[in-house]
């Protein structure tokens, strides 16, 4: 048998645009490639052999011969690219790019997609923190019609194994900021930070991508033409080998990326048709809110009226408000968002939801005062109508933030 000479893919430096059609099959008589999975790497020499082995076994079983694995390494000093290259004999579906001119996770992924032969394009971290088994589920949801299938830490079956409080906080903070700046992009997925997803070529071909830093998924949703999104839960596991490349710089880049997308994409119009609005939940949330108004009124009367307890008004209102919040929480937890809470019934989980709900309601109250004043001073000089509009706006806001932050799947061991 003749030894095949394994060559590296040559580096691309043209604009970051994915061709509409995959490059024609070169020379060899192999099967058409259906799925191309990019593995961006930097300093992953201790992980890459293991990952390639698991991925090959998995995909050989599921779509033998119809996939390719493309390692895009940024000339790692630990020579990850060389290790990957040396494994090309063992794994015929493997291709390797060594980049010397460019650096960065997002551009590495796009460069990989640019040379990809498949019509389904994917990305997975090279450090085994993304469980490979999930790939099959992602592929299946695409087969069933999704345009984009995202592995998410925040849907059923998802979680993080042991992140410290600071990392959780930063991750959530980044998400909230994203929701405020780019609701039409960040709000479409439960885990916008995910770097583990697959997408149809047709959704991102022909557009020039401008990613900054790490978060390539934002770019795909923000600039691509993605209709149906599916999510599959996964647990982000601990790194066994090597180390994370995330530094403060990635947070700055994330901010830049958000602003850039905000300014350059006209997503607002698309939001309406594309977000799958949870109408039922919203109606229940509204009804619960209404019940809270009655609870609040009744308690306020009982506490403050001169014929009853005659407590001071402010004190009465604080107590009444808190009891109403408690009332609303109970209803929302057992009814509105029962799908999520029924799976997280432990006391500490309930307590956590209750505290979040409280905080968000408090924020909502502040927002209410602000919006009321704005509407009253600039739009409608009728306090009751202005208040009604303010309440409507704040209800939507409260609902949405609670949906995204309080009643969601998180803790999974
Ligand atoms: N080519 C290339 N160039 N690859 C890189 C670079 C780079 O500059 N920087 C990091 N990578 C590779 C790493 O080798 C690894 O395979 C993957 O990108 C993720 O990098 P980590 O440093 O391990 O990131 P993490 O563990 O914090 O993961 C976070 O980011 C991921 C990528 O967006 C999480 O948010 C994940 O959910 C997310 O998938
Ligand atoms: Mn990692």
Write structural notes for this entry:
- The protein is of the alpha/beta class and 413 residues long.
- It has 2 domains: 33-265, Spore Coat Polysaccharide Biosynthesis Protein SpsA, Chain A; 279-405, no CATH class.
- Helices cover 51% and strands 10% of the residues.
- The protein has 15 helices and 9 strands.
- A 7-stranded mixed sheet has the order 3-2-1-4-7-5-8, sandwiched between helices. The protein has a two-stranded parallel ribbon with strand order 6-9.
- Helix 1 (48-62) links the parallel strand 1 and strand 2 (67-73).
- Helix 11 (279-304) runs antiparallel to helix 12, helix 12 crosses helix 14 (347-378) and helix 14 (347-378) packs antiparallel against helix 15.
- The protein is elongated.
- The two termini are 49 Å apart.
- The mean pLDDT is 89.
- The protein binds guanosine-5'-diphosphate-alpha-D-mannose and manganese (II) ion.
- Guanosine-5'-diphosphate-alpha-D-mannose is lined by residues 40-42, 44, 72-74, 103-105, 108, 125-127, 129, 193-196, 214, 236, 244-246.
